[in-house]
Amino acid sequence: MKNLKYLITFLSLVLVFSSCEKENYEFGAIIAPTNLTITPEIVGKDASNPFGDGSGVVNITAKADNAVSYKFTYNGVEKVKTSGYLPYNFGNTGVNKYIITVVATGKGGISTSETVEFEVLVVYEPPTELVTILNANSSRTWRIKAEANGHFGLGPVGGLIVNQYYPAPANVKANTGMYDDRFTFKLDGSFSHDTGADGTVFGRKTLIEELNGPGGTGDGGDILQYPYASYSGQYILTAPNGVETITLSGLGFIGYYIGGSHQYRIFKREANEIVLSTADGNNEFEWWFVLVPAE
């Protein structure tokens, strides 16, 4: 009986050690990121323009050995990028100092962080006409123009032809959670996104997971009716390289969540219609949106 007891104990220890060895093998080594560097490229900076060209655009690049993702934090707003690259559009006029913290995370969640600071010049003042169209000099709410052909679509990154690859037919995305969304821009720079009575949004597969919501329904490369509460944030208007641009804070988006820079190029603007485009976080497509007032 005593020998049997020893045998059972021995076999139990063997199973424990075998289980641990298997677990360690599957998980792999836990290595902290090292040699984290943060490089701010101030657009237009040269000997004659030490604070840039006045557009307020700064491209931030973070690199570290053994890092799998990078979290950028500015003014309390966090954005996570696996590439380590993130462009910022700053909107405070004049020369201002900005501080950005980057946390590089490795396998197993071990991280290291660094902070970078720089000064940038912003001289852009949005045209009165653009301000009037966007927020009516107070507050204005917009929606996707679902009833029109080509209200949503895609094309090549940086393309100049609206919906070059695919123009969505009228009302074709009625079951996605996009059409009841409302986007409000106010004169004070605040932005709000009402996700509608159904409390859901529409987005790109895998990229929409950045919202940390509970799921939604998969449909090819899309996620339909992804549960997401209404939220508020900020927006700024800039014109890098002469292109009027709306930049939304945090994870703010319009119409279809695709991650990326959260910067929307104003391709066309009229009194009661705005055409926007932005590249997705995979740098795969340029996505197009037609907005009209929600009246």
Give a verbal description of the structure.
It contains two helices and 20 strands. The protein is mainly beta. It is globular.
Topology at a glance:
Elements: H1 2-27, E1 34-42, E2 57-65, E3 69-74, E4 77-81, E5 85-89, E6 94-105, E7 111-122, H2 128-135, E8 139-144, E9 152-155, E10 166-167, E11 182-186, E12 190-194, E13 200-204, E14 217-219, E15 222-227, E16 231-238, E17 245-248, E18 263-270, E19 273-279, E20 286-293
Antiparallel strand pairs: 1-2, 2-5, 3-4, 3-6, 6-7, 8-11, 8-20, 9-10, 9-20, 11-12, 12-16, 13-15, 14-15, 16-17, 17-18, 18-19, 19-20
Essential attributes:
Lipocalin, Immunoglobulin-like, 20 strands, mainly beta, 295 residues, 2 domains, four-stranded antiparallel sheet, 2 helices, eight-stranded antiparallel beta barrel, disordered N terminus
